[in-house]
Each structure stands twice: as C-alpha cells, then as structure tokens.
Amino acid sequence: MTSIRLASLAAIVAIGLTAGGCAGYRESRGYILDEQLASAVQVGTDNKTSVEKTLGRPTFTGQFNDNEWYYVSRNTSTFAFRNPRVTQQTVLRIRFDAAGNVAAVERTGKEQIASIDPYGKTTPTLGRRKSFFEEFFGNIGTVGGVGTAGQGGRGQ
After folding, report:
1. Could you tell me which InterPro entries the record lists for this protein (predicted)?
2. pLDDT in tens, 119-143
3. Is 82 among the domain residues?
4. Which of 30, 47, 65, 124 is 20 to 30 A off residue 38, Cα-Cα?
5. What is the DSSP-derived secondary structure letter of residue 79?
6. Is residue 150 part of a domain?
7. Which range marks the domain in which residue 88 is found?
C-alpha cells in the first residue's frame, strides 16, 4: 500500500515539474518608451542635442540618411516552446532638417509588422532540373578525359 502511494506521489510531482516548464512569459525588447518624454519632443523647437538629452541615444539611425532617428519598443509574449508573438510595438521616428532641428515626429504600431512566409525548403531557380542520378553521375568522363578540355586532358 505504501509503494502505491509513493508511486502516485512521484507521478504527481513529475507532472507538476513538467507543467511548470510550459509556463508563458512576457518580454520587453528595445527602447522602453516613456509617453511623457516622447510627447515632449516638439517640431521646430527641439534639435538633435535636446532630443538625445530627452530620449537618449536612438535604437538606430536611418540607413541612407543620418537625419532620421528611430526608437523601437516591442513587447512579446511566449507560451511554452512556441515562437514569440508581438503584443505591442511602437516605432518613434524623428526626422531632422539640414540644420539639425526636429522636422517631424511620427509614431507607428504593430500594423507595420510584415509576416514573411518562406517558400518551402528550397529556393526556386530558373534553368533545367536534374534528377539525383544526373547530378551524381553527370560529370563522369568529362573532367580530365582524353580529348576534353579538363585538367589533365589535352583538349585536342
């Protein structure tokens, strides 16, 4: 009778430990956006120095234009072993004019996230498709043979 209780107790503990590994968690990534500080940046009044003092260094700057600063904030939620799901995203884009003054402040959310679905496990290419055997045996006799222009051949 005692061994049955011990076995059932061990099973309950094992199930509890296994279920504990399936817990979900939330994660914040990128810039932690403070709404009051973000709304303090004004067009025409602020410049690069004042924006950096107010918001800090940007997450990244524009790739083709150094006068665009981006502050990216993203919250994700994950359950067990699934891929993270974006619950909230804010991208604050601040554009500066040539003199370094704020020209525009734009804010976007998670509607800008693009879902990319890869096409299978291979990349489609143009050209002739060869079977496994054509690929494997196709070059036999062509490289280095007499009368061909391969290494060791005379190319006659």
Report:
1. BamE, BamE-like, BamE_dom
2. 677 766 777 778 888 888 877 777 6
3. yes
4. 65
5. -
6. no
7. 22-114
